[in-house]
């Protein structure tokens, strides 16, 4: 039975327990719109003890925390500008990314939007990750607030249906009387804690991967493609590949395959070229999955795959085994010819190698090569745990980055206000800059959402 069935049952049970809890503690709840807040004193003693016991370390750490806040904010502003320019100027980005740019990370998001390049995101993952991320984030706010002698009124949880949030409630009036360094460190402490959580679970993920997974095949990310000049297309046939929605093109006496959307976008945007799949053996056989064997020879690296294909001649018929979700599929394929060599017609999209994101992807690739298919020694539980840890790292980093956007609802909003206030020495200028940054980003997000919406109309 699929884990999804158990996960949905857990979602229903958890929702019922939350409703029961809210009803039984309704006198202690405070409603703010659709959100219910449940205040407690749980954790305040721990916050007080930690801030006092480790104050010799925490006080100099304030400077690092604030520096991390500026680093995260700077990165997010740079990323927003770069991403927005690409997204708004590209004729295909909105459809290619599928998911709206403004959508909460809810359970089953990859499934709902059919995002194949992300692993499943179960409700079980969601509830575990929220607890592990939210508690250190909020407690870090509380610890640095107490370090500056700011009183903590309450800790607690927020409920929006089955969805949870944690909070620590410092005395706002006392906060405003503290130095700007103290306030900045309190605001950036939560995101700093998220970075530490991400690093910690990234280490666990790496250790778990190297101890539990072995290479079992080679992934290919695409079929071989060619750039076809639109003006040279002499014929477009009807849909020729069942259930795939591909059109067959003829250009320069060669056949290619592409989607109606690609053709339409090329015509609408007056593009000179369109990317099309070659008329290759792999495409015609609908080859899918990670290649694990060719003619009973194990394939566990790109070198193995290249050597195996080079050992054959054009016209040879080979048996290829692939793996998808642990299931093996057999294909019998006759190799074609290209440049006097045997041609199968698969490709691997290169990993971005430039910029900050490229450096991160290159580092990750040294641990888990994206071209290699790995199997766990503990079966499906290995994949389940790996995906959980992967989401943990990704969401921890995402929460840290998003929270430092200079917008009112995030920690970065007041962080930005205090920064401009500190630079200019004028609170009104800081508040005005804060309002302007908030409106600019909200308008930018609205434009991105409209672009996504119109892409699917």
Protein described:
It is elongated, with a radius of gyration of 27 Å. The chain starts with a helix and ends with a helix. Helix 6 (123-147) runs antiparallel to helix 8. It is built from 15 helices and 19 strands. It has 2 domains: 3-213 and 384-455, no CATH class; 225-279, no CATH class. The chain is α+β, with helices and mostly antiparallel strands and 457 residues long. Helices cover 53% and strands 22% of the residues. The strands form 6 sheets. A 5-stranded antiparallel β-sheet has the order 7-11-10-9-8, covered by helices on one side. Strands 1-2-3-4 form a 4-stranded antiparallel β-sheet. A 4-stranded antiparallel β-sheet has the order 13-12-14-15, with helices on one face. The protein has helices spanning 3-24, 44-53, 55-89, 93-97, 109-112, 123-147, 172-177, 180-212, 260-268, 281-284, 302-310, 355-367, 380-402, 411-424, 427-455, and strands at residues 29-32, 35-40, 152-160, 163-170, 213-218, 222-223, 225-229, 233-241, 246-251, 254-258, 273-278, 290-294, 297-298, 317-324, 327-334, 336-338, 341-343, 346-347, 372-376.
Spell out the key features of this protein.
single chain; about 450 residues; alpha+beta; 4-stranded antiparallel sheet
Helix and strand arrangement:
Elements (H helix, E strand, L loop, with lengths): L2 H22 L4 E4 L2 E6 L3 H10 L1 H35 L3 H5 L11 H4 L10 H25 L4 E9 L2 E8 L1 H6 L2 H33 E6 L3 E2 L1 E5 L3 E9 L4 E6 L2 E5 L1 H9 L4 E6 L2 H4 L5 E5 L2 E2 L3 H9 L6 E8 L2 E8 L1 E3 L2 E3 L2 E2 L7 H13 L4 E5 L3 H23 L8 H14 L2 H29 L2
Antiparallel strand pairs: 1-2, 2-3, 3-4, 5-19, 6-18, 7-11, 8-9, 9-10, 10-11, 12-13, 12-14, 14-15, 16-17
């Amino acid at each position: 039975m699929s884990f999804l069935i158990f996960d949905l049952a857990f979602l229903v049970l958890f929702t019922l327990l939350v409703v029961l809890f809210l009803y039984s503690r309704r006198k202690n709840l405070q409603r703010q719109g659709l959100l219910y807040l449940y205040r407690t004193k749980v954790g305040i003693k721990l916050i007080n003890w930690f801030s006092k016991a480790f104050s010799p370390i925490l006080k100099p750490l304030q400077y690092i925390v604030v520096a991390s806040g500026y680093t995260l904010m700077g990165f997010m502003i740079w990323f927003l500008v770069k991403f927005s320019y690409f997204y708004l100027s590209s004729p295909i980005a909105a459809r290619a990314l599928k998911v709206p740019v403004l959508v909460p990370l809810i359970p089953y998001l990859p499934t709902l939007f059919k995002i194949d390049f992300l692993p499943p995101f179960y409700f079980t993952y969601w509830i575990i990750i929220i607890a592990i991320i939210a508690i250190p984030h909020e407690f870090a706010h509380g610890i640095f607030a107490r370090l500056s002698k700011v009183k903590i009124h309450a800790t607690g949880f927020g409920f929006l249906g089955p969805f949870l949030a944690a909070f620590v409630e410092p005395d706002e009036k006392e906060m405003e009387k503290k130095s700007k360094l103290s306030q900045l460190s309190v605001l950036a402490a939560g995101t700093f804690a998220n970075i530490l959580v991400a690093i910690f679970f990234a280490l666990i993920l790496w250790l778990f991967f190297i101890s539990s997974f072995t290479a079992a095949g080679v992934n290919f990310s695409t079929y071989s493609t060619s750039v076809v000049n639109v003006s040279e297309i002499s014929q477009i046939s009807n849909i020729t590949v069942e259930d795939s929605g591909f059109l067959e093109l003829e250009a320069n006496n060669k056949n290619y395959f592409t989607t109606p959307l690609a053709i339409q976008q090329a015509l609408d945007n007056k593009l000179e070229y369109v990317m099309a799949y070659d008329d290759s053996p792999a495409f015609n056989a609908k080859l899918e999955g990670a290649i694990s064997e060719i003619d009973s020879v194990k394939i566990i690296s790109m070198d193995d795959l290249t050597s195996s294909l080079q050992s054959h001649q054009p016209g040879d018929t080979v048996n290829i085994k692939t793996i998808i979700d642990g299931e093996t599929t057999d294909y019998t394929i006759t190799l074609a010819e290209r440049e006097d060599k045997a041609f199968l017609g698969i490709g691997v999209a290169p990993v971005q190698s430039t910029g900050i994101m490229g450096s991160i992807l290159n580092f990750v690739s040294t641990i888990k090569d994206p071209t290699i298919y790995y199997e766990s020694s503990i079966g499906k539980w290995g994949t389940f745990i790996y995906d959980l840890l992967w989401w943990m790292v990704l969401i921890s980093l995402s929460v840290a980055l998003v929270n430092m956007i200079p917008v009112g609802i995030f920690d970065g909003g007041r962080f930005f206000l205090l920064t401009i206030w500190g630079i200019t020495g004028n609170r009104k200028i800081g508040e005005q800059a804060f309002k302007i940054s908030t409106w600019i980003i909200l308008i930018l997000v609205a434009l991105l959402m409209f672009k996504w919406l119109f892409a699917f109309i």
